[in-house]
Amino acid sequence: MGSVSLNVPAPRRGGGRRISCHCTPSLLNLLMFLALLSTNALALLAFFSSSSSSSSSPAASAATAAASTISDHVAAIAREIDTSSSSHLPHRADGLPPELLLFLSPHALPLGRDARTGLTHMPASVAHSCFRSPATLSLLAAFMSYDPHAACPRNATLQQHRLLSKACEPLPRRRCLSGGPRAALPASNMGVDGRRWVRPRHDYEFLLDDVLRLGATRIRIGLDVAGGAANFAARMRDRGVTVVTTVLDNAGKPMNEFVAARGLFPLLLSPAHRFPFYDGVFDLVHVGTNALDEGGAPSMGNSGMEEALEFFMFDVDRVLRVGGLLWIDSYLCQSEERRQLVVNLIKRFGYKKLKWMVGEKAGTGSAKTALYLSALLQKPARD
């Protein structure tokens, strides 16, 4: 085999001669391999030294501690659900329908035991609040009693209404065939008050056109909470605004079918539960009297509790975009204490007051004064 000659010129200032090295190809390959190996070794050493130093930093330690805390919380919640479920199911499991057991049974984790939480199965979180009451669980069992792949029972409306009144969200009937409308419904705007939101009836009522003019940008899409027959959505449609209405069938009345027959969008949802919408998607959220009923209305479950009202307001704030409008429309406060509670809760969000009106309800026949509260608020930008 031949040799390779490397000529390295000497510096001119020194006046020295050129340096010459005659190397065989195998020797040259060995030198290149040693150089590459030493370079990788130095890089690997630098990587591990930086990792060890960063792992010992306060920020990394805090992140590790936070992750560990979250894992502990998840494990605790899962154990609580599992304990709560098992405390009710063993003596009732034989009487529960198979479709309900399919939802309530714990499911094995696909990758086996979780190293952080130690869980091997994930208990079902659905219908967790229904376990606290045997009567509610029996009602849920009746709701879920059906033959798979056959027609769904026709008594769903009343059962759903009773379950929601107990703060128990009905499970979906996943494997039965739903029927059509129960009766022919008018495809008209029947039931819309000809004056409401268009002409003033009381000092504490706002008009649609005034509200739309106060918006910083054009109102395009809105949410009406507990909107009944969707009269508000019908009025807004006349002004080019699309409104989704949360509707509950009440006392056997097919409200969802009626709203759909009017060409409007009904959503079967209780205000006591989280809105199934992404953050900041609505330009306007309209909240009427029924959504904030403090007398324990079925639509709110435990609506008389301050926590329930707080959860509701936080979820409204979540789905409302920055600069969007929150319209609290003629909310009836049964006492000054309740009104002050709502006012203090609103102040916590830092909304800008565009319109604010309080009026007394006449003829209540009670020693306490009932007050109507109407407010138009604008969501601020937050850091």
From TrEMBL:
Signal peptide: none annotated. InterPro entries: Prob_Methyltransferase (IPR053223), SAM-dependent_MTases_sf (IPR029063). Keywords: Membrane, Transmembrane, Transmembrane helix. The keyword Transmembrane applies. It comes from the Eukaryota. The keyword Transmembrane helix applies. The chain crosses the membrane at residues 27-48. This is Methyltransferase type 11 domain-containing protein.
